[in-house]
């Protein structure tokens, strides 16, 4: 079973357990993102979705993306305005993204101590964090060689 297929099955189970609807459009958007090598932009998703669903419009894609992000199935790459599948959606977590500027590959890290230190320091300064995004842009090992 491919990684994309296993992510879809995991997403179905997670949505069923949470009592939320994993509609065909949400499923298809997740399939496209999970099958991509790097992050996909919303309009790339729309172009591909419109081939299959003539009625697909930007709000269709953005609603699906909002749902997938809310469920922890997809992450938004802020610096690229693109979306990538979460490889471990079964648990809520903070994450960091390594983004290769040459091939677009995205790796997800889980350095909880980094997030703990940032949250602690923010609290000590009286700052209330609403959202945290840590992205490291560079060159992956494959592209560097």
Automatic annotation (TrEMBL):
Q: Name one GO biological process term.
A: negative regulation of DNA-templated transcription
Which keywords annotate this record?
Cytoplasm, DNA-binding, Iron, Metal-binding, Repressor, Transcription, Transcription regulation, Zinc
Q: How is the cofactor bound?
A: Binds 1 zinc ion per subunit.
Location of this chain's protein in the cell: Cytoplasm
Q: What is a single molecular function from GO for this protein?
A: zinc ion binding
SUPFAM superfamilies this protein is in? Winged helix' DNA-binding domain
Subunit structure, per the record? Answer: Homodimer.
Any Pfam family hit: FUR
Species in which this protein is naturally found:
Franzmannia pantelleriensis
Name where it mostly resides: cytoplasm
Its protein name is Ferric uptake regulation protein
CDD domains, per the entry: Fur_like
Q: Which InterPro entries match?
A: FUR, Fur_C, WH-like_DNA-bd_sf, WH_DNA-bd_sf
Its Gene Ontology cellular component terms are: cytosol
| Residues that hold Zn(2+) according to the record | 100, 103, 140, 143
Q: Which family does it belong to?
A: Belongs to the Fur family.
Which cofactors is this protein said to need? Zn(2+)
């Amino acid at each position: 079973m491919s990684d994309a297929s296993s992510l879809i099955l995991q997403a179905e189970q997670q949505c069923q357990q949470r009592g939320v609807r994993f509609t065909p459009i949400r499923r298809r958007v997740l399939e496209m993102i999970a099958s991509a090598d790097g992050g996909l932009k919303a309009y790339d998703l729309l172009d591909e979705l419109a081939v299959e669903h003539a009625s697909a419009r930007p709000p269709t894609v953005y609603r699906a993306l909002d749902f997938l992000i809310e469920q922890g199935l997809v992450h938004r790459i802020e610096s690229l305005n693109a979306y990538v599948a979460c490889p471990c959606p079964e648990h809520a977590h903070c994450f960091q993204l390594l983004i290769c500027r040459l091939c677009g590959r995205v790796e997800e890290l889980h350095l909880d101590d980094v997030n703990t230190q940032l949250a602690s320091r923010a609290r000590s300064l009286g700052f209330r964090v609403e959202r945290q995004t840590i992205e490291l842009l560079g060159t992956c090992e494959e592209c560097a060689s």
